[in-house]
Amino acid sequence: MKQGLSLRVSQHLALTPQLQQSIRLLQLSTLELSQEIEQMLDENPFLDKDFEEAPREEFGLDKADAPARDEEVEPVRDVPSLEGGMSEISVDNTASDTEPSVDGVAESWDGDGSVEFSADDSEWGGDAPASNHNNTADSDTADATELARMQESLASHLHRQALALRLSPTDQAALRYLIENLNDDGYLEDTLRSLAEGLGGDDEEEIEELEHRFQVALSLLQSLEPVGVGARDLAECLILQLKALTPQGEAALQVRDTAILMCKQPMEMLAKRDFKRLAVVVGDSEANVKVAIALIARLEPKPGRRFADVERHVVVPDVLVTRVGKSAIAPKFKVALNPDVMPRLRVHDIYANALKGGKGEAHAGLQQRLQEARWFIKNIQQRFDTILRVSNAIAERQKNFFIHGELAMRPMVLREIAEELGLHESTISRVTTNKYMSTPYGTFELKYFFGSGLETDSGNNASSTAVRALIKQFVASENPKKPLSDNQLSEMLKEQGIECARRTVAKYREALRIAPTTLRKTL
């Protein structure tokens, strides 16, 4: 084998730890970011919360790489800080010229962060009011998150009722066990046999004894409020609620009994509202079947709904869009970051000062931790700057939405914003995932403002979001006795100059959670 030397020039992408952190922070939701900050505050002694009001300072990447200098770490004001109040930017203003460092490398990162969003981020806001833990019910400033904490859970509600029952310790324990195994809707998904096997192991006698105890406890559970709790399926839930009714008169009693018989049939028959077939199956008149269906429609299919954890559904917007001025001809809107989700961080000045004049390996390690704290603050600043730039570009392109609502939404794809800001599409995708914007028409995820287009007779495109809004408007104004079919909705869209096939209408209708024609028809 002949040996030799060769020179080859190639390019490759190097993701430094700082760059990886910047990309990761960009795709985090508000709740995930607050958790990340808490973890970093615990791990890095140089990172500290800044509770003072101070103007935001620029902190460049070149300075982040530089070692700590004596004149730099002495005063608190000379270290980087992330303030609660970011500057508000009007839609008519041009975007910032600062380019996030994630641009150009994001194409190798394809994943989008998608986790359940639930947050109480007021502790990160600079101007957020302090939480009132003493008497929230009497406070006019109680927010949705505080009210959610006050709400009683389904399990607590049932346990409180169980205390009023005079049960033996064994039956009390069996009832408590069943309550803890209910899902959020109030259903008992596991069979009594499987629950008994989970506790009894291989002892068949023990399993049978437990199953008997659970059967008694289930009867007690289904007697508690809300009615229908502890059901194993939808049919049983509806039957429990029907049996709890006290109809007045022979006719009302007959209707209730007919409804119970109907619930014992396959749910598909009830969903299709096949009156004639149901009348034959239950042995009653078609008129009584229609009244029974109306009675069933008033029942609660999810008994635990009102005990749902509201805190999980509280959305804290990252961006606020407000109208400025009173001009009706050319209204302007202001885009600003929500100060309630803006953390205030700074480098701990006391610990940073302790590094002055230090030498040795220990000093080098502490110096590295100081640089990590600086980079973390810089990356968070960069994250919010990118969110603000993207939000500003969205507000500029979707200005008609903020004036007229979703019917005025225009088609827009990620590529348009990416080309305008000089970023990669994957960067825009990360920014718009699990980030929310508060508008005059409600709070929406940033991805809501992106959508494909449908051709119109004029040669332009109509946004799919606007088409869905139009379908919702048609359905809201339809005759309840003669609801519009998908074909009719498609024809009505054509009259508006929008080419939309029946299948597309059906897809949009299902996305809007609008029931089909047969289920929307008023009895």
Name its key features.
523 residues, alpha+beta, 3 domains, five-stranded mixed beta sheet, three-stranded antiparallel beta sheet, 23 helices, 46% helix, extended
Description:
With about 525 residues, the chain is α+β, with helices and mostly antiparallel strands. The protein folds into 3 domains: about 270 residues, no CATH class; about 70 residues, no CATH class; about 70 residues. It is about 45% helix and about 5% strand. It has a 5-stranded mixed sheet, with helices on one face. Helix 11 packs across helix 14. The N and C termini lie far apart (about 90 Å).
Measured distance between first and last alpha carbons: 90 Å
Number of domains: 3
Global geometry: extended
Count of DSSP helices? 23
Percent of residues in helices = 40-55%
**Average residue-wise pLDDT:** 77
**How is the largest sheet built, in terms of strand order?**
3-5-4-7-8
Strand content: 5-15%
Which consecutive residue ranges, at least 5 long each, have pLDDT under 50? 53-142
Given the helix and strand composition, which structural class is it?
A: alpha+beta
Q: In this structure, how is the largest beta sheet organized?
A: 5 strands, mixed
Supply Rg: 31 Å
Describe the secondary-structure layout.
Blueprint: H1 17-27, H2 30-43, E1 47-49, H3 61-65, H4 70-73, E2 81-82, E3 89-90, H5 144-150, H6 154-162, H7 169-180, H8 192-200, H9 204-221, H10 234-243, H11 250-263, H12 267-272, H13 275-282, H14 286-297, E4 319-324, E5 332-337, E6 345-347, H15 349-353, H16 361-397, H17 399-404, H18 414-421, H19 425-432, E7 436-439, E8 442-445, E9 453-455, E10 461-463, H20 464-476, H21 486-495, H22 502-511, H23 517-520
Parallel strand pairs: 4-7
Antiparallel strand pairs: 1-6, 2-6, 3-5, 4-5, 7-8, 9-10
